[in-house]
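Subject: sequence -> structure tokens, single chain

Hey, anyone have a minute? Need the predicted structure for the following. Not urgent.
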Amino acid sequence: VDVVESGGGLGQAGGSLRLSCTVSGHMHSVNIMGWYRQTPEQERELVASISRSGETNYADSVKGRFAISRVDNENTVNLQMNNWTPEDTGVYYCKAEIVGYTWFGDRWGQGTQVTVSS
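Reply:
Had a minute. Here:
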């Protein structure tokens, strides 16, 4: 099973960007999908997550600015990042809760860098 992120980049405060993550491989389904952010000063932390039923969860720092969505038939989760601030800078990782045919566990992507300048 592979988890691949795309869409990172550079931008200025107030801008927007969308991150995408696609899960592929031999598996039954994907449960919760989420985006996490890591910086040199801080451990990896949850930014947003979404369940199969569409229930979402956001870090307080991004509520009202970021929106997470998923396309189940494509095993894809997107993170729309609006009204950037420099504090959004970091490496963004996608995590997928995989339900295999004989196993169950989390898989992480390789991470994508997001850098926001003031």
